[in-house]
From TrEMBL:
It comes from the Bacteria. It comes from Citrifermentans bremense. GO terms for molecular function: hydrolase activity. Pfam families: Amidohydro_2. Residues 128-294 form the Amidohydrolase-related domain. This is Amidohydrolase 2. InterPro entries: Amidohydro-rel, Metal_Hydrolase.
């Protein structure tokens, strides 16, 4: 595996850890049986120049397997809790990693009062929030939250607004999956109501053209290229231009699972392959992720 370096920084040194690469978008789906493999892969990523990865864990306290599975894409291979109540496992992986893994809680199954429930997760050790706009018509082809929970679209909208409010008031990073091709107006309304929230709309907002207006209008909004490696390789010039144009807002993100973190390095290699200037690569892989995460970093 090729070693990818930071310009002017010796890997493994204290400056490398302070300025190392950060992947802002992983998922757990990884039980305690894989704990040693997670530690070994974390150590290898550290040797490759990473200082942190951000991993998302689901919570499920009420839904049956059949109900919970309808909100997850069919291609996901779950190697963790069979009911997708994986936060405890993620927090243990994070503890064992000694700060390398930054845990976020996935809110798609959130029940009850938003503020008190999220505060409880923070007390357990969660460092930020993952949300997803899952109406009954969505880009990942799963059942919507309103139908699954038996709530109205307005009730669902109110819940998501409360999540944004909580993230803004508590200065937490919010990774929020949303498709600008279908929901650009809702995305813009969220940012209008919560201008101080530190939010990453991943996957380049799903559609770069409609999402560009959000990035232009809100320079504090972040995005990542999670799960887009084939697109980067297929259309390198277009993505190179996009990343350079939004070089202060793009973060490194892969969509990898904790049991397969070796795939993260492929994203670094793909970014290198775009021929980005070193200063832009450093922003994408280190500066912007740190700005997005803020106090969530140890």
């Amino acid at each position: 595996m090729k070693l990818l370096t930071l310009p002017g920084v010796e890997q493994g040194s204290a400056p490398a850890q302070a300025a190392g690469f950060i992947d802002v978008h992983l998922h757990c789906f990884t039980g305690s049986a894989w704990a040693q493999q997670v530690l070994e892969q974390s150590a290898e990523l550290r040797r490759q120049g990473f200082s942190h990865v951000v991993a998302i864990g689901m919570v499920n306290t009420r839904l049956s397997y059949d109900e919970v599975r309808t909100l997850i894409p069919g291609w996901v291979e779950n190697r963790g809790n069979p009911q997708y109540h994986e936060l405890d496992e993620l927090l243990e992986h994070a503890r064992r990693s000694e700060g390398f893994i930054i845990p976020l809680v996935d809110t798609r199954y959130l029940w009850g009062d938003v503020a008190s429930t999220l505060s409880g997760y923070l007390e357990q050790g969660v460092r930020g929030i993952k949300g997803i706009w899952l109406t009954d018509n969505n880009d990942i082809g799963v059942k919507g939250v309103p139908e699954t929970f038996g709530i109205t679209s307005e009730e669902y909208r109110r819940r998501e607004w409360e999540i944004f409010s909580y993230a803004q008031e508590n200065d937490l990073p919010l990774l929020y999956h949303m498709d600008a091709r279908e929901h650009a107006d809702t995305m813009a309304a969220m940012m209008q109501d919560f201008p101080r929230v530190r939010v990453n709309f991943p996957h380049f907002g799903i559609g770069r053209k409609p999402f560009s207006k959000i990035l232009d209008d809100h320079p504090g909004v972040y995005t990542d290229m999670a799960n887009l490696i084939s697109h980067l390789r297929k259309n390198p010039e277009s993505y190179r231009d996009f990343i350079i144009h939004y070089q202060d807002q793009v973060c490194l993100g892969s969509d990898a699972f904790l049991y397969d973190m070796g795939s993260i390095v492929q994203y670094l290699e793909a970014l290198r392959g775009l021929g980005l200037p070193e200063e832009v690569l450093h922003k994408v892989c280190s500066v912007n992720p740190r700005a997005f995460l803020g106090k969530a970093l140890p």
